[in-house]
Amino acid sequence: MRYIDEEAIEKIALGAAVLGTGGGGDPYIGKLIAKEAIRKYGPVVLISLEELRDNQIVVPISGMGAPSVTIEKIPSEIEFTAPLDKFEEVIGKKVDVVMPIEIGGINSLFPIIAAAKKGLPLLDADAMGRAFPEAQMVTFHLDGLESSPVTMSDEKGNVVVLYPKDGVWHERLARVITIEMGGSASVCDYGLLGKEVKSSAIPGTLTLAETIGGYLLDNKGKERQGINKMLEELKGYQLFEAKVTDIERRLVGGFTRGKAIFEGIRNEQGRSFSIDFQNEHLVAKEGEHLLCSTPDLIAVLDAETGFPITTERMKYGARVVVVAFPCHSKWRTKKGIETVGPYYFGYDFEYQPVEELQKERV
Question: Are 131 and 279 in contact (CB under 8 A)?
Fold first, then answer.
């Protein structure tokens, strides 16, 4: 057990934006709200999976919608606890612990804000090890655990309760409601017992985000030192260094979808690259040659600071370093690939681990 304070939030926000692969909501906005919550309500207790008791009720709380929406439609304080209050009302019990559903952008900070306001401990784990765009793309779904009941809220005070039959229907129904709520909403789902969470969640991911954020903050502007430390920690690879020459971004079906085009710089001059995204980065290519694909992680970093750039913040002319990391082993199972692999997102090629693709480049 330890406490999350304002300094930890600064690091978590940065590290989570790296692990969030461009998605999970805007970390800057989430960081400001989380710091204010700590100042107002006090530090948050962070517990490990080992400290979690089997009979405790654990509930993730997160934001749903297109990341580009949150830049203009900033969440209100009511959104961070309203779905949690309704969840407790629905099950007739108090929630013991909250957790992030994913590690990415604002969604790593959502539960910190809720934990501070409600005086609850926060679990150092999540159900993705990164960020994914759809609600069923969690380890809980892979392990056959129920997402129902699902509670949702918006900034106006509207609260909705859903009883989807599985994670796929959770995504379909909740996405439509999110669109009607203005493109973003807060959600509680997969309320589980501690023993279920311990068998399914990915451990230590908030601490990992804090560690990565620390590398970047402590080595800001120091010629790749922070990036190199991060790559070593995550067993990652530098895919390319380039500048953004074109970016297409649109809001479709409650997601931010698009494509970024890059021209190589420094040692990569004369080469062309691209990244496709749906909230999160999905596929990186050099021309038509695959460099990395979902479920492995692709992160776009500012070439000068090493700080991550989310899909909604990427701009023409930005000079970037694009890196990739292997995903958690649960996503490399048959069901994991069926759930989040290239075929699911409409690509006509099979998933290849990033380490195999990088061996081919050497």
Answer: yes
pLDDT tens-digit readout, 300-319? 999 988 999 988 888 999 99
Structure tokens at 224: 């790749």
The whole-angstrom separation of Cα 132 and Cα 28 is 19
| 149 residue type, one letter | P
pTM recorded for the entire structure: 0.92
Kindly give the pairing relationship between strand 44-47 and strand 122-123: parallel
Q: Six-digit token pair at 99?
A: 């957790």
d(CA 297, CA 354): 9
The total number of residues shown for the chain amounts to 362
Residues 47/124, Cβ–Cβ less than 8 Å = yes
What residue type is assigned to position 309 of the chain? I
Other residues' Cβ atoms within 10 Å of the Cβ of residue 270: 7
Tokens of 219: 């080595």
Bridge partners, 46 (sequence order): 2, 122
Q: What is the dihedral of CA 118, 124, 129, 134, to 10 degrees?
A: -20
